[in-house]
Write a structure and sequence with these properties.
globular, mainly alpha
Length: 190
Amino acid sequence: MTEAQLHTLLNSGRLSKAQVSGLVMDLEQHPSLANALLQQVLLEDREGTFNASWTFDNLMRKKLVYLIPIMDDFTEGLSKLRSDSCIRSMAHVCEMVTMAYFKKKDSFFRNNITDSHLEKIMTACFDWLIGPLNIAPKVFAMTSLFYLGMKFDWVHPELKLVLENTTATGTAGYKNRAKKTLDMLRGLGH
């Protein structure tokens, strides 16, 4: 697959789940196209479509290691996202990254992700958590921030404060994840 073929596929109308799965299988064989896919996500964010972000999320579920060579572009792009659909996918990728780094303690991620990358993820996640987004990005952001608080000690108190102030007005899904996150924070003494 070439970059031009990828661009054509992503811009040929709404992709079905099966088409996304097929595209991800092709992309697994072409890791060099991960950056072209990410650039398409950033373009797509302004256009209000989500083929690229949906495909990117699904590719990262299978090959999160493909993110490492493009981590600078990924983390730089997070603060520029505006579309709920793109933010949802990128928030999920952030959650996967923080889990690989902190929960799984994957040495490949720990050796290749800088504090600067983590700080950009953290900033985006706080923005998504307190912003007027749908539930999914907020839930992914909560998890990411919980793990990021393992390295940046000021995060847990701030996360706790935000959750305590927003849980009562959140949706059922938000309340559920917020309660679990608050319980985990209490378990750490916060």
